[in-house]
């Protein structure tokens, strides 16, 4: 099972006299009533081991180190980004409602709840796909799904951009899988940029070869803001764009689509992976938005994150924007996986 790859490492530092980071309180637009299973206490990386039928959309506590066991690359130490309230530089890391020098509040940030301080299941889906595509397997022993996944997730020689990276696990795996360049980005106010991304890149890559580290970088990026130096220098520069669980802010869908169109190279593809913890409606709304912005959905399907087929492969079903009678627990075990390619741009 995907989530069994994670386990918590001993804590190096536990802050005192600071409030705990809250679990995300997403509004699930598909649910008719409030779920009574929103945990105040995260069991973190041990939940999948204790309750294998439960599928948490996020893992770890802010600042915690998780061991990600990779059959291809060995054990990786992944630091979860800190939460602003537990940082000694809290004023520099506020992820929502950050005040400007003139006393006003940044309205975009005020509406944002970045939730960078977790490792998201969608990021693990991308990491697993890239890793398996890079694992040598004889063609004659591969199933059709495995062959399709190899074509879908192969990053060898590709230039990769990760949006809303958080802990940046996909970026680390893409670098190990021989992408030509890897760029991890997050919102300028994200706590992920305050140490976690740099640690995860340097700790897990520097031990291997300096060449791997040199092809990886991180940059702040606010979706839809395309006139800064990073954006101007990298228009159309990336052949693969990773967007994993970046879609719960409906107000940011157009900005996210603009960013994707701006950075995507001709012939490039965008990987969209999303759980349904916010409901299907908001995920479906994003797909409607990207179609309006000239993207074409090349492929789209749903994957079961808990069960496997008899031959150990993935269980898939067709994507549906609405599933009547789908309960919250069943909804949590599925994610949507899609690839987008460029159509006519509004830019």
What are the SSEs and their pairings?
Layout (H helix, E strand, L loop, with lengths): L5 E3 L38 H4 L7 E2 L5 E6 L3 E6 L10 H4 L13 H5 L7 E2 H13 L10 H10 L5 E5 L5 H8 L4 E6 L9 H10 L4 H5 L1 E5 L8 H5 L4 E7 L8 H11 E12 L4 H13 L2 E10 L11 E3 L9 H5 L1 E9 L5
Parallel strand pairs: 6-7, 6-9, 7-8, 9-10
Antiparallel strand pairs: 1-3, 2-5, 3-4, 10-13, 11-12, 11-13
Protein name: Nicotinamide N-methyltransferase
InterPro entries: Methyltransf_16, SAM-dependent_MTases_sf
Pfam families: Methyltransf_16 (PF10294)
Task: Give me some keywords for this one.
single chain, alpha/beta, 8-stranded mixed β-sheet, S-adenosylmethionine-dependent methyltransferase activity, 347 residues, 22% strand, Nicotinamide N-methyltransferase
Q: Sheet bearing the most strands, described?
A: 8 strands, mixed
Widest β-sheet, arrangement of strands: 8-7-6-9-10-13-11-12
How helix-rich are the residues, as a percent range?
25-40%
Could you tell me the strand content as a percent range? 15-25%
What shape does the CA trace take? globular
**Would you identify the regions where 5 or more consecutive residues have pLDDT less than 50?**
13-21, 32-53, 86-100, 104-112
Q: Give the overall average pLDDT.
A: 81
The counted number of beta strands is 13
How large is the count of helical segments? 12
Our Rg estimate from Cα atoms comes to 19 Å
Structural class: alpha/beta
Encode the helix/strand succession as letters.
EHEEEHHEHHEHEHHEHEHEHEEHE
Question: First CA to last CA: what distance?
Answer: 42 Å
Region (Disordered): 1-39
InterPro entries: Methyltransf_16 (IPR019410), SAM-dependent_MTases_sf (IPR029063)
Biased composition (Basic residues): 1-10
GO molecular function, one term: S-adenosylmethionine-dependent methyltransferase activity
């Amino acid at each position: 099972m995907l989530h069994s790859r994670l386990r918590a490492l001993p804590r190096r530092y536990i802050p005192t006299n600071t409030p705990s980071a809250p679990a995300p309180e997403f509004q699930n637009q598909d649910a008719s009533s409030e779920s009574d299973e929103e945990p105040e206490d995260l069991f973190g990386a041990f939940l999948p081991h204790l309750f294998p039928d439960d599928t948490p959309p996020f893992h770890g506590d802010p600042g915690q180190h998780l061991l990600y066991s990779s059959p291809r690359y060995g054990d990786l130490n992944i630091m979860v980004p800190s939460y602003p309230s537990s940082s000694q530089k809290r004023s520099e890391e506020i992820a929502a409602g950050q005040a400007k020098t003139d006393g006003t509040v940044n309205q975009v940030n005020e509406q944002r709840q970045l939730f960078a301080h977790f490792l998201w299941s969608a990021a693990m889906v991308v990491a697993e796909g890239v890793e398996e595509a890079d694992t040598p397997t004889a063609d004659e022993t591969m199933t059709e799904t495995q062959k399709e996944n190899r074509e879908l997730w192969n990053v060898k020689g590709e230039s990769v951009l990760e949006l809303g990276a958080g802990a940046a696990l996909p970026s680390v795996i893409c670098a190990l899988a021989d992408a030509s360049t890897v760029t991890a980005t997050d919102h300028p106010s994200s706590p992920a940029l305050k140490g976690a991304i740099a640690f995860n890149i340097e700790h897990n890559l520097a031990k291997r070869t300096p060449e791997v580290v040199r092809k990886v970088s991180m940059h702040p990026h606010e979706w839809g803001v395309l006139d800064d130096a990073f954006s101007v220098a990298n228009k159309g520069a990336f052949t693969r764009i990773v967007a994993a669980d970046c879609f719960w802010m409906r107000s940011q869908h157009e900005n996210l689509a603009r960013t994707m169109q701006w950075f995507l190279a001709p012939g490039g593809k965008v990987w969209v992976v999303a759980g349904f913890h916010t409901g299907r409606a908001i995920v479906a709304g994003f797909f409607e938005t990207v179609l309006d912005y000239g993207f074409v959905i090349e492929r789209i399907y749903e994957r079961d994150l808990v069960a496997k087929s008899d031959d150990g492969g993935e269980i898939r079903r067709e994507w549906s924007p609405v599933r009547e009678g789908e309960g919250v627990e069943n909804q949590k075990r599925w994610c949507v996986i899609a690839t987008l390619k460029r159509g006519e741009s509004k830019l």
